Amino acid sequence: MLTVRAPATSANLGSGFDVFGVALGTPADVVRVERAPETRITVTGAGSQYIPEDPAQNTVGAVADALDAPAHIKIDKGIRPASGLGSSAASAAAAAVALNALYDRGLSRAELVPVAAEGEALVSGEAHADNVAPSLLGGFTVVTDDGVTQLDASIPVVACLPEMSVSTRDAREVVPDSAALEDVVDTVGNAATLTVGMTRDDPDLVGRGMEDAIVTPERTALIDGYDRVRDAALEAGATGVTVSGAGPGILAACHRPDQGAIAAAMIDAFDALGIESRAYQTRIG
Ligand code: HSE
Fold first, then answer.
1. What's the CA gap between 45 and 77, in Å, rounded?
2. How confident is the model at residue 170 (pLDDT cuts 50, 70, 90)?
3. What is the Å distance from ligand 1's center to 22 Cα?
4. Which atom of ligand 1 is nearest to the CA of 246?
5. How far is the centre of ligand 1, averaged over its atoms, from the C-alpha of 130 (Å)?
6. Ligand 1 center to 245 CA (angstroms)
7. Is 120 a catalytic residue?
8. pLDDT greater than 70 at residue 267
9. Could you tell me the pTM of the whole model?
10. How far is CA 29 from CA 83, 240, 245, in A?
11. Which tens digits make up the pLDDT trace of 16-29?
């Protein structure tokens, strides 16, 4: 039996829609694999009742197929599905690493990115790599049609997860088909600022660079209480706040000493609206 842990991730970071992704220290999924004549999947842990165990419908089944690596695969979910924290991607990434080792396929972490992305296609309808790439490679990743670039980075963040679900499919339907040049120019500037911030481990630049006027405003409408929670985080010292992935998770960048106060402010803001939430005080890395 081989065991692999893969971390939660946050994609987009506002200005980097479908391009940027980061690995978070917590939460994480744990996947255990052992060789078997045909693939069988069992799922336990957070939100496991919503995850199909049929290999034809599970991200991990697609990964086993892609690697021609049938196995008994046990997934222990630390990351709730439909959270915006790369739940399906973490399972796919962990399974890709584990099955690659179990069957001596010899693929590098970078070569496993498109393999794990096959699993994502099953969940969101498109093979996005912006969650699987950071889950496999760590740090800050930039995914384009030409490949993946990775940078080690260390930025404190709070990932606040309310008790509500937003499906990636629904969140993609509200993405506008086009944008004003002025907004595109602003977004490119913000994405560049964020990238410089990652190279310097600078939470102020990263937070400022999360601003996005194109996709994020459409998506925040799907998250009850988003504006109040964002404002509460900013008042408590967050350097920037955005939707994590497709939501409903909300990601706040910050300086380490402010992390506890920001987590408490976000939970309180949801609580005032009658919405339960939990906050992970973690870091990009
Ligand atoms: N970039 C994707 C989105 C992440 O925001 O829709 C989820 O796969």
1. 5
2. confident
3. 12
4. 5
5. 7
6. 5
7. yes
8. yes
9. 0.95
10. 13, 27, 17
11. 999 999 999 999 99
**What is the β-pairing status of strands 40-45 and 71-77?**
parallel
Q: Is the pLDDT of residue 125 over 80?
A: no
> Does position 124 have pLDDT exceeding 80, yes or no?
no
Measure CA 11 to chain center.
5
Looking at the chain, which runs of residues are DSSP E strands?
2-11, 20-35, 40-45, 71-77, 140-144, 147-151, 155-162, 240-243, 250-253, 277-284
Q: Please report which helix (H) or strand (E) contains residue 214, including its range.
A: none
Pocket of ligand 1, beta carbon within 6 A: 11-12, 18, 124, 128, 130-131, 168, 171-172, 245-246
Task: Supply the DSSP symbol for 231.
Answer: H
Q: Exactly one of 120, 211, 239, 282 is catalytic; which is it?
A: 120
Residue 234 CA from chain centroid, whole number: 21
The single-letter DSSP state of residue 274 is: T
Distances (CA, A) of 83 to 164, 251, 254: 8, 12, 21
Nearest Cα neighbor of 47 from 74, 10, 87, 86 is 87
